[in-house]
Amino acid sequence: MIIPKLHYISQGNVPKEILENIQKACTSGAELVQLRMENTSEKKVLKLAKAAIKITSHYQTRLIINGYYKVAKAIKADGVHLEKTDACPTIVRKHLYPWQSIGGVANTLEYCETLITKEIDYIFLTPFKETTTKDNLNSVLGLSGFTAITEALKTETPIIGFGGITINDVTDILKTGVNGIAVSDAITQNFNSIKTFNQLLKASSTDEQRHTFE
């Protein structure tokens, strides 16, 4: 399962705004959108997810549902993204289709190792910086934290950096060994930035290939 290098985490104060932002992300070239709606009933999330997948399917963009794995299964989303407070990935796996992916969130090396034993498909390593997106009590990792964890892990599981990332951070972040990034604020503020993010991420992968063949 190939996990895209750029994840857009949806934002918006009301469902209409969230869907408009998802639409803009898709038209701007997002390969993967994560639908996040916190502190909402499953019924409301299901309604929103049904509308969201109509948009993402049209653009052949992958849709990941944050937290609500039953919704992810019901609408046949590409996968589910689990926060630490959500159900255990091993349990969730039994409820999903075999082709659906599961992502998890970690802030420490130890928790990354725990998630890998639960056979998740990718890990969000967070936060890179202090961010207003979430009430984040975890310690900020920064470039040194990302590097330390990726070097110690030596895993095939894709690591996605998240938390206050802007275009200016991408090149340095990729040098830490993470495989990709997740972005919310910077993209919501300027959907044209998706193109730039994608170019920076692709440039890094061509560099990797060049080094491999030398």
Share of helix, binned: 40-55%
Strands, total number: 8
Tell me the number of helical segments per DSSP (H or I, 4 or more residues long).
Answer: 9
The end-to-end distance, rounded to whole angstroms, is: 27 Å
Please summarize the sheet with the most strands.
8 strands, parallel, barrel
CATH fold annotation = TIM Barrel
Unreliable spans are none
CATH homologous superfamily classification: Aldolase class I
The radius of gyration over CA amounts to: 16 Å
Q: Strands of the largest sheet, in order across it?
A: 1-2-3-4-5-6-7-8
Spell the H/E element sequence: EHEHEHEHEHEHEHEHH
Q: Helix/strand/pairing class, anyone? A: alpha/beta
Please tell me the overall pLDDT: 93
Question: Architecture, according to CATH?
Answer: Alpha-Beta Barrel
Q: How many domains in all? A: 1
Shape from CA axes?
Answer: globular
Q: Any idea of the CATH class?
A: Alpha Beta
Beta content: 15-25%
